[in-house]
């Protein structure tokens, strides 16, 4: 097996490979635990990229997030229902208005460079998440409630108080987010030119970096003194696995072939049509549930014609979501019923708004003055109703889904042209480009309070729909969600905002989200998953 694996890695180093993949979910063991735990062994994990996300507060994507989950701990673990449970913070309490939180830290925890994970180190991490460091080009951590953050007090060596100027119900779940990574003070203080060096990013996790080659591989080895894993994992002491090798193989077909040949133990994101065959051959397919937004498109209202509600609403009712499921996916994928996932506690059921109704779409466009030309494409005042759509390079199923959508939109007179590009090109052409009306979203979150921070640019929000603060309805939803002290009242605002966003066609769902799908050897046991569907191999082991 090891000879085959070395040959495979050598072969891949000289291969010409291309393509991309998906990502996200919940914390449950994926395999039957009747087998007796053994110690030792190593696994090889194949994935589509490892080209970003090592520096402070950088984008941790579906690929680099696989590595970070093994080398860096979090203050809390959040399960697939959004519930925080102890990790480095062994307990906590909040004041009455949910604006101050006291975290009590485990004793005896150290980073792999030997420095303590104490209150000073935790406070320094929280400060970086909240504020970044502009002098080194480090931005604040996205989705952290930075705009109302007031500071962190060190009460004693193992206690901190985190303060906000307004109620912040989402703070505790945010501490389990896959980007809120605890790093040593030495890593936090690296000069700007060394921030992207993974070997200098020191965590307190159960594995440490043995070697890495940028956008090619990362090799991790077990940390022998680790003994502070999440309470949710039924394991203590060091990890059972000796080593994990993450290897970039861009083509999904090559990843699948390597798994079948015994040259890999886990592969990320195989095309849905291959899953049945792999299951029949005895491989385990793991589809962890994810908290977050569903698969779909956020709408840029500054793009030509997309400030017009009729155009957005026509697209909403002109997409046949069942056809997408039947054409592209397997039964592992489920229909969306809102723009947030079905396991989010505050999700509503808005499938009536998402119902396929091409007659309604045609009527909306007719009434808005968009008439069908001889080429079947609608036009108004000499302008065609056409635009470019870009497949997400992070999601392996994005291209086939978009192909179906392009055909469906053509039936109601809208001409969309599909573009397939790599990650750097997508970032350059699509992000912050106001000529692109539909931007594909696949994002997890651990608390629905995040929804308030994507609607507008209030409180440094992500401003998904490009309204800024000109849409008073969205402004009010943002305030109601962000300033809630009571979960029940917040859930009412979240229900209403889901209805409004979907009715206005500001988010176009396609399916429920499966960001990460793992196909793996049946010999691997004890793998567990966070509420964002990232794996934790601390409790994993291999059959002999």
Structural overview:
- This protein is of the alpha+beta class and about 550 residues long.
- The chain has helices spanning about 1-15, 65-70, 120-130, 170-175, 185-190, 250-260, 275-280, 310-320, 320-330, 360-365, 400-410, 425-430, 470-480, 485-505; strands at about 40-45, 75-80, 85, 90-95, 100-105, 150-155, 160-165, 205-215, 215-220, 245-250, 265-270, 285, 295-300, 370, 380, 385, 385-390, 415-420, 440, 505-510, 520, 525, 530, 535, 540.
- It contains 14 helices and 25 strands.
- Helix 11 links the parallel strand 17 and strand 18 (about 415-420).
Give structural attributes.
alpha+beta, 7-stranded mixed β-sheet, 4-stranded antiparallel β-sheet, 14 helices, disordered N terminus
Structural class: alpha+beta
- Separation of the first and last Cα atoms: 13 Å
Shape estimate:
globular
Secondary structure: number of strands? 25
* Mean pLDDT across residues: 90
User: Largest beta sheet: what is the strand line-up?
Assistant: 8-9-10-1-11-21-12
How much strand content do the residues show? 15-25%
- The gyration radius over C-alpha positions equals 23 Å
In DSSP terms (H or I, runs of 4 or more residues), the helix count works out at 14
Low-confidence stretches: 1-33
How much helicity do the residues have? 10-25%
- Biggest β-sheet description: 7 strands, mixed
